Amino acid sequence: MATTLTKAEDRTAVGHAARIAHVSKSFGGPEGQQLVLDDITLDVAPGEFVTLLGASGCGKSTLLNLVAGLDRPTAGSIETPGGRPALMFQEHALFPWLTAGKNIELALRLRGVPKSERRTEAERLLELVRLGGAYGKRVHELSGGMRQRVAMARALAQDSQLLLMDEPFAALDAITRDVLHDELTRIWRETNVSVLFVTHNVREAVRLAERVVLLSSRPGRIAREWTVDIEQPRRIEDNAVAELSVEITEQLRGEIRRHGQH
Amino acid sequence: MASTDTKPDDLAGLEAGLDALDAVQVRRTPVREVLLRKVLPPALAVALVITVWQLLVEAQVTDDYKLPSPAAVWNSASDMWLQGTLLEVVWTSISRGLLGFLMAVAIGTPLGLLVARVKFVRAAIGPILSGLQSLPSVAWVAPAVIWLGLNDKMMYAVILLGAVPSVANGLVSGVDQVPPLFLRAGRTLGASGLRGTWHIVLPAALPGYLAGLKQGWAFSWRSLMAAEIIASSPDLGLGLGQLLENGRNNADMPGIFLAIILILFVGIAIDLLVFSPLERWVLRSRGLLVKN
């Protein structure tokens, strides 16, 4: 399909949206240090969509926090040449004292966008997530799916080249999640942003990503990665998605089983 | 096409449908319902109290210099009104109370922010600040009179000592209750340090801060009344507290009742007219006011 090819060709420009090199992270506790991430090396190319997949305790959220700059690695380095990455959480994290539009405008303001341009830009971003009429809506007046779309618009307002997503759809119902998958794919292709998406849902990972990276647990290490050669737009029910999901799930279960053996 | 995927237009339509199904309906209560549910019950309660009062007077449960009739209190009020002193007395106290309260806000707010955000300051004066809340401000009247003399300064000192801890503590608990997620979201958007405090911490702490302001006003008013009752002097101008004290000196029970009712009335009125609407507006705009 033509669009898929264009996407791949965009990447001819050398560089990376994120370069994670030999990153380790341990947290100090009363019983000594606990290693959470062990020697993670991962590049995200400009415009690439990568999902980080793993069971509980694989440190995937920790890794995302490190890339977002909310925490520092114990060892190794992280580069994000496109500036401070945008981050979306499982909870929408929209500020309830602001309207949907003003939430986006706050992000624009903190980015340094002049006041005169903020309103127009906020409305453009709301249009992008198909919430054109929601500018003046309060957060509590929006449904769960709408809140996550506003959160997506706010993240995009940072104009970062890298969008980090920490299980952003985990709390949504299946129908809404499905629609948001389509929406995210569309927006990713329209904006050419790079996405690093964390999930424990194998099918979601395969549905969305160009590359799926499987992390082992305790400590988190890169166990294996897959390139997903299925044309977009995909459906979560597609046979190709299901087949790859089965293969990845097998591997994931293998990783989990190792923890029961000692 | 590898799959029977949704066409872009279908997706937009599907999404519009979902939004319409899921969107939360916000309903405003009609005025009649507000009157019926919020105004009628307290009005009935007041009417009941006055009726019982009148019945007690008519049954002559005690001497009439101890329990004046509602009519006597009313006459005492209308006498003052005709002399033109009623509003003056009320205004003397309200203006003192509000000015003192505003000063308490101006001092308590930065103090609260400092305690909330600086660990050392919190460890140093946090416990003292919450302890001060349980100290009745009457206790400050004696030293304030000795230090500052019988004047307005002393009144304001007593108000501040009563209200500043409430305002500061309200802000501290407001800041403590800010969800960590908001702070993380703020930091990823680039709001840290002072910008984070201004754009994220303060607005997020607003409900707790307002509760502190409300309590701060109650403490201001109480402190002022204590100061006015204890420290009366002709130089001070007649406030509600002095009105009460004059009533005692003249054995004028209707005057005492009138003063008490006015003190209560002002306290309730400021709360109902200023703080409650403010608090409700903040909570409603955040979807925190749940109606059943």
Strands, helices and their partners?
The complex is a heterodimer of chains A (262) and B (292).
Chain A lengths: L1 H9 L7 E12 L2 E13 L4 E5 L6 H9 L6 E5 L6 E3 L11 H12 L3 H14 L15 H14 L4 E5 L7 H18 L2 E6 L2 H7 L2 E5 L6 E6 L11 H20 L4
Parallel strand pairs in A: 3-7, 3-8, 5-6, 6-7
Antiparallel strand pairs in A: 1-2, 1-4, 8-9
Chain B lengths: L7 H15 L8 H28 L11 H14 L2 H32 L1 H15 L7 H8 L3 H25 L3 H9 L4 H38 L9 H10 L3 H33 L7
Helix pairs in contact in B: 3-11, 4-5, 4-7, 4-9, 5-7, 6-7, 7-9, 8-9, 9-10, 9-11, 10-11
Question: Which architecture of chain B per CATH?
Answer: Orthogonal Bundle
Distance between the termini of chain A: 48 Å
Please outline the major beta sheet of chain B: none
Q: Kindly estimate the percentage of residues of chain B that lie in beta strands according to DSSP.
A: under 5%
CATH third-level topology of chain B = MetI-like fold
Mean pLDDT of chain A: 86
Largest interface: A-B, 45 and 39 residues
- Helical proportion of chain B, percent range: over 70%
Number of domains of chain B: 1
CATH class (first level) name of the largest domain in chain A: Alpha Beta
Radius of gyration of chain A: 19 Å
Main CATH class of chain B: Mainly Alpha
Task: Offer a few descriptive terms.
heterodimer; A: 262 residues; Rossmann fold; 2 domains; three-stranded antiparallel sheet; 8 helices; 23% strand; globular; B: 292 residues; MetI-like fold; 0% strand; disordered N terminus
